[in-house]
Amino acid sequence: MKLIYPAIFTPYFDEGGYDVTVPDLPDCMASGDTLADAIEDAVDQASGVILSIMEKGGEVPPASEYSDVELEDPDDFVSLIVLDMGAYSDAHAMKSVRKNITIPAWLNAYGEAHHVNFSRVLQEALLSMTQKKHDRKNPDRPS
To answer: Which among 10, 57, 110, 137 counts the fewest CB atoms within 10 Å?
Structure first.
């Protein structure tokens, strides 16, 4: 599942780098010596915050609209960051829980014939459900 959040980039001119905050994730702060480094760190930090929330069974915060983000300094700018939670979770998740599921035999045969990773499918479906739940809570927000 991919999530998109607006991030505020604050340049520090004396050194050429950037501080980054994600308004929807108050615990997320990042920085970088270059814009590319700052974006990469922002994606990594935001993904870590979201993963931590999800591992604790919490609600994933919905993203603000890009146009609703207010800047405090005229040198600040907003950019969208994309979080690939499936890939980040695969690389960084601290714990896994084993679940037994029951599916029809024909569906199992199809999955095995097409080399389906059943765990991955279930994870992506559950992540998608969490996003849809937040979209229903914010019906004015375009999908």
So the answer is: 57
| Cβ–Cβ < 8 Å for 55, 95 | yes
How many angstroms separate the CA atoms of 143 and 132, rounded? 9
Q: Where are the alpha helices (DSSP H) in 8-84?
A: 35-55
User: What percent of the chain has pLDDT above 70?
Assistant: 90
Strand partners, 17: 12
Half-sphere exposure of 121 (CA within 13 A, CB side): 11
* Structural domains in the chain, sorted by start: 2-137 (3.30.160.250)
Show the DSSP H helices in 29-117 as ranges. 35-55, 85-92, 105-113
87-115 per-position pLDDT tens digit = 888 887 766 777 888 999 999 999 999 99
Q: What is the H or E stretch that residue 129 is in?
A: helix 118-137
String of b and e for 105-118 (b: at least 16 CB within 10 Å)? eeeeeeeeeeeeee
